[in-house]
């Protein structure tokens, strides 16, 4: 019996700068890595901050004029008002906050400070999220196919916290070439019955695997290649999202039922 | 320059049954896998459902008498009242729900149906979470060390949904031998400044990597070995948790500020 297995290789690059071509750096980096080259079926993972920097998605704090709302949020949540202003501009909706962070809805996902991070940004600047991570992933995928001949998939990833978890893990924010979520409806469990939970967030799992080699600090390992994962590579595009009304966690905020608090009181 | 890399190997076993010794199955499985044996520094990942079954944490629905509260919750959230009763018993607190699922707090984490799943349980039964996943991880770690001489780490994992993400990814619910979260405080970013987000949930990332080979369906791959990850193996115990008051997502439920809803209305 053969059991599934795969490998993850970090891809080191020079510090990326606005205007850099990401695919060029990846193609050069993979040659210096133990992966040697890109192969058909590989999943190439790129950190959103490096990608956004290369795409010129950098704003200077000195150029930002905070609005009245940004000033109010900044005071309430102890933030730089210019930072709060950029978060406001980049969000579809603000749904809450804790000191230092606003919780935002953006493109159907929930994320702190609209994904805007001062880490790994030049002094006095903020790096925004890539404008269209799915399009970026598709572009890099096409460039790798054209220049190396390898039919790879590309995922753009961010490092994020999750509800009631300490620390960050990987999340896919852009995807091209593999399904981001695999629906196992119809598959049977160990006892031959239909599975209850049928959706596997494979792109998020790959993002977290890649986080283990990419690191958050100044290591200049902004990408990784995942080999042997056995997913079908083809014309899949985008990261599947969930509606807030179907989300159990948003349900806490949107449909909280105080009578359900069976032990103790709500913390406040 | 060497960049980091690692490999993940699935470990296949026969269907585990109450009373089975998990370490025995893992030691036998690894010999049949491409990993060949356990090596010092390996992280061994075990699915909570297989572990809980081996530990006899299986309840028969026919033996359950639903309480009045369980009957009410079952009606409101369209569940089997006996299933709702078991979820109530296994939760520290119920904080909300959507049809089919109650959102529970248990041991400082937030999870649907208290982690109780009818999938991969014998007909008419439910598999509970392992009673003490950290202790289970430590026991398996000690057994592997004693019988193979290899100083490995062990993580017990569950497959869970996250806020506003479609599909399940891996989460560590028990850990022995590596730190579950690595604090990078003091590390510098690409521009030499202190990192803003400093905690990496490495155990969750490893859990998600392992999910990619373990599968949810009847594949009988309830474990994996992660090799080359480069984490320090030693006397670390437990999964670090976060207090609800520090959690940005719980902040939405606990400190929601309707005046912050800058675009559109709350869904309801």
From TrEMBL, chains A, B:
EC number: 6.3.2.31
Keywords: GTP-binding, Ligase, Magnesium, Manganese, Metal-binding, Nucleotide-binding, Potassium
Broad EC category: ligase
GO molecular function, one term: metal ion binding
Domain Coenzyme F420:L-glutamate ligase-like: 10-228
Protein name from the UniProt record: Coenzyme F420-0:L-glutamate ligase
One Pfam assignment: F420_ligase
InterPro entries in the record: F420-0_g-glutamyl_ligase (IPR008225), F420-0_gamma-glut_ligase-dom (IPR002847)
């Amino acid at each position: 019996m053969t059991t599934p297995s795969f490998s993850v290789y970090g891809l080191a690059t020079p510090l990326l700068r606005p205007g850099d071509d990401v695919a060029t750096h990846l193609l050069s980096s993979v040659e210096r890595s133990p992966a040697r080259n890109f192969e058909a079926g590989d999943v190439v993972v790129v950190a959103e901050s490096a990608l956004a920097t290369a795409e010129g998605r950098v704003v200077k704090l000195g150029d930002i004029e905070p609005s009245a709302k940004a000033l109010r949020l900044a005071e309430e949540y102890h933030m730089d008002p210019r930072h709060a202003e950029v978060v406001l501009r980049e969000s579809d909706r603000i749904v809450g906050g804790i000191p230092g962070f606003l919780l935002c809805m953006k493109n159907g996902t929930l994320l702190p400070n609209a994904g805007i991070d001062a880490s790994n940004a030049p002094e006095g600047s903020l790096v925004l999220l890539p404008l269209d991570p799915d399009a970026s992933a598709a572009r890099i995928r096409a460039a790798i196919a054209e220049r190396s001949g390898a039919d790879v998939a590309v995922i753009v990833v961010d490092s994020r916290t999750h509800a009631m978890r300490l620390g960050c893990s990987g999340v896919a924010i852009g995807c091209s070439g593999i399904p981001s979520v695999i629906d196992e409806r119809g598959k049977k469990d160990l006892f031959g019955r239909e599975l209850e939970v049928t959706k596997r967030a494979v792109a998020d799992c790959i993002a977290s695997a890649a986080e283990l080699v990419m690191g958050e600090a100044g290591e200049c390992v902004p990408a990784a290649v995942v080999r042997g994962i056995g997913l079908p590579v083809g014309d899949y595009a985008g990261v599947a999202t969930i509606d807030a009304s179907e989300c159990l966690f948003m349900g806490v905020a949107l449909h909280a039922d105080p009578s359900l608090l069976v032990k103790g009181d709500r913390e406040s």
